[in-house]
Design brief:
It contains 1 helix and 13 strands. By secondary structure, it is mainly beta. The strands form 3 sheets. The protein has a 6-stranded antiparallel beta sheet. A 5-stranded antiparallel beta sheet has the order 7-4-3-2-11, with no helix packed on it.
């Protein structure tokens, strides 16, 4: 499980300020990230975007199509939509508002991905093709990639288990992430040195 609190430092408008990279996962020795997670408003309706590259190699390089998964945002109900076939819609993110994001996965050969937003499940579990997690021990997680400065991350936690919907909802209600026996990493970014790129 990867969890974090995020805040946009610019108002997403679908034009000049529409791309907010959150994190990327890149295996050691590979030129491009295997996973990218960002918030974008470049398309309408607004979406969360996930990029998943399959675990396929051609002549020693990772190849194949990227998986693109979206979570639509809207304040209205789509005509014909029922509670049985749609997850709760996500409200449009605004500048300066804090939000809790959590991403869980189970399995390695065909991982099932679930996304939570502000304590609610908004996507998944959805199985993906390709075993993208088999070398996660030798991978790097990069926050706010490509030197973008329009997003702030606080409380960032990585866990060794896929946390339950109840646990994630409780963490959102508490307003902070805490360490327990399943915590592999927890940082509140309170000791960032002045002049470094990372902000609390």
């Amino acid at each position: 499980t990867i969890e974090m609190w995020i805040r946009l430092e610019a108002e997403p408008d679908g034009t000049g300020c529409h791309y907010f990279p959150i994190f990327a996962v890149q295996p050691q020795g590979e030129e491009m990230p295997r996973i990218r997670f960002s918030y974008q408003t470049v398309w309408k309706p607004d979406h969360f975007h996930f990029w998943f590259a399959p675990r396929e190699k051609l002549m020693g390089k990772v190849s194949g199509f990227l998986y693109l998964t979206t979570v639509e945002e809207t304040q209205v109900t789509v005509k014909g939509e029922t509670a049985q076939n749609k997850f709760p819609r996500v409200p449009r993110l605004k500048k300066g508002d804090w939000h809790d994001l959590a991403l869980t996965w189970t399995g390695t050969a065909t991982p099932a991905i679930t996304l939570y937003f502000d304590g609610r499940r908004v996507f998944g579990p959805h199985a993906l093709m390709g075993s993208i997690w088999d070398d996660i021990e030798n991978s790097s997680i990069m926050l706010l990639g490509y030197t973008h400065d329009n997003l702030t991350v606080d409380d960032f936690r990585i866990s060794s288990v896929a946390r339950t919907e109840k646990e994630i909802a409780a963490a959102f209600k508490a307003g902070e992430l805490k360490a327990d026996k399943f915590t592999l990493f927890l940082d509140r970014f309170e000791n960032v040195m002045e002049g470094e790129d990372t902000r609390p």
